[in-house]
Amino acid sequence: MRKALRLAARGVGQASPNPTVGCVVVREGKIVGQGWHRYAHKDHAEIEALRQAGVLARGATAYVTLEPCSHHGRTPPCAEALIQAGLRRVVAAMIDPNPQVCGHGIDRLRSAGLRVETGLYRMEALRLNEPFACYATTGRPLIVAKAGMSLDGRIATAARQTSWITSPKAREFGQELRRQLDAILVGVGTILADDPELTYRGKGVKDRPLIRIILDSRLRTPIRSRVFHTTDASPVVIFCQPEAPPRTRRRLEKAGAEVISVPRVTGGLDLKRVIAELSKRKILGLLVEGGSEVHWSFISRRFSDKFYFILAPFVLGGKRSIPSIGGEGFDTVESAPRFRIVRNFPVGSDLVLEAYPQYSRSMASPWLSSGTPPSPRQDSLRTSNRR
Length: 387
Prior knowledge:
Largest sheet: 9 strands, mixed
Strand order of the largest sheet: 11-10-9-8-14-6-15-18-17
Number of strands: 19
Structural class: alpha/beta
Oligomer: single chain
Shape: elongated
Distance between the termini: 24 Å
Helix content: 10-25%
Strand content: 15-25%
Order of helices and strands: HEEHEHEHEHHEEHEHEEHEEEHEHEEEEE
């Protein structure tokens, strides 16, 4: 299963909007087939592994990181392929949270007489498919926030100087997050202050173009912004209020942006409508990179599912320096959301804290009870004797 997980990890950045899956077929203690899923190649991990195994699949065991599908999508169901190949046993790390599959693939395998076990390395498999699982169970993307800051939680000086707060290694980590997720979101303040490209420039392969999203109520994004230099390879979507200037809207659209109007609510644009639009586009994972007011909007409205706080080893100080989380702030300590830190690790000279807010909808959230299933079915280690 560890080998299957390593194979599945190769699909990160290449499988979306499908889950990333790895499969290893073992017969008499030897690997006879293996595969992993890439969306552009269509064939699922199980099919690749069975093709490699050939006749040696008969009587073998398949270790797969996600329950084999049981429905017809772009390809025939993998559960049927495993049955037809004559496998004796299937070990799945986790039940598929997709309601179309959830447990049905396991049931189909068992009804055909295969021995099936689930739950081995479940959390590792879930972390690989955290965006897919969130989308499948909630109907909206996994929303991951990232903020690089000084030890005292500042992202810019009082003079609004923001360049390179974090180390080069931390910036590489940020690129890796862009590879893992489907879209990146910033506020127009970030565009005006930093003029970023917001493109993916990491070392790994990313097949699905990174969609760049800007929250810009009054359409203040300059036409000459760097985000418009690469619209063919990486689309730009700007959300504005209905009252935004029509003439400016036409100019931005001519520059290559897609401009979408959403209602304005107290504190900014209606994020529910923004997220609903992203869901319709099958964006499984959204990276929110700021700035300060945008982070406040997502946290105060309880939309962030996961947060990466990247701490650089220096202090900016000052009453007028910019905090990582702006806005009005919470009125009381009791009303502020609690976070649970699940990991901390160094990147270059900086420290990353990976944390989940208590309202997170991610299936990997430590606030959820251990083993909480996406449906009434229990995803614990289960065995069924072959009939």
